[in-house]
Amino acid sequence: MAKSPPLKKLPKSKNLVASVSTVSLPQREVHNGHRGAVLWFTGLSASGKSTIANELEAALFKRGCHVFVLDGDRVRHGLCSDLDFSEASRHENIRRVGEVAKLFAEAGTICIAAFISPYRADRDLVRTIMAGGKFLEVYVNAPLKVCEQRDPKGLYAKARKHEIRNFTGISAPYEAPLKPEIELRTDKLNVAEAVDKILSNLQKTCGVPWKKS
Ligand code: ADP
Q1: What is the pLDDT of residue 74?
Q2: Among residues 67, 79, 167, 170, which is most buried (max CB within 10 A)?
């Protein structure tokens, strides 16, 4: 795989002062009825990240929670439209999305970030910028063979024909999480079971009201 040059770093302003909100995070969380957090979905293409993220968003919304899904399509059209799928761009994509997800959590929202995010170091970096316990790594895990059989967007077929370069699992690496807070084997669980597994975790960690979906 050809390595692309690292992205150019812009100089940081020397005149930055930390801003203080007039509304504190605890006040927001009491107002919302649950804590804010980032649910970081990682996994191969077609493992089920978007499908489960969208179902989970609907289930949380139904419970009156403040929730928002960030995914590749949403950010690659705007915030990250200057980035490609080279290694350097993938790092920068996750760094930016991590910062945005952090802002959502600071606003008291449950932010579901659904990105392949193939590099462990990138995911660990997002974990380190978040306050303790606010980052929950969700490993959406299906074997490559299963993902390739599903292939809902025909991307694996294109990658096998070399029509797509740097495709995770085929011609680019995927580093699986070592200790995810939640693991979903989507070749064994159906979508409703996967959603319930996350909801039961969120009930304990974020005070989300429990209601069987
Ligand atoms: P990703 O966002 O990880 O690329 P998608 O959610 O877009 O994956 O696609 C996953 C595909 O697999 C969808 O067509 C979905 O209907 C199908 N699928 C089959 N079983 C499951 C499951 N248990 N969990 C999630 N998706 C599943």
Answers
A1: 87
A2: 67
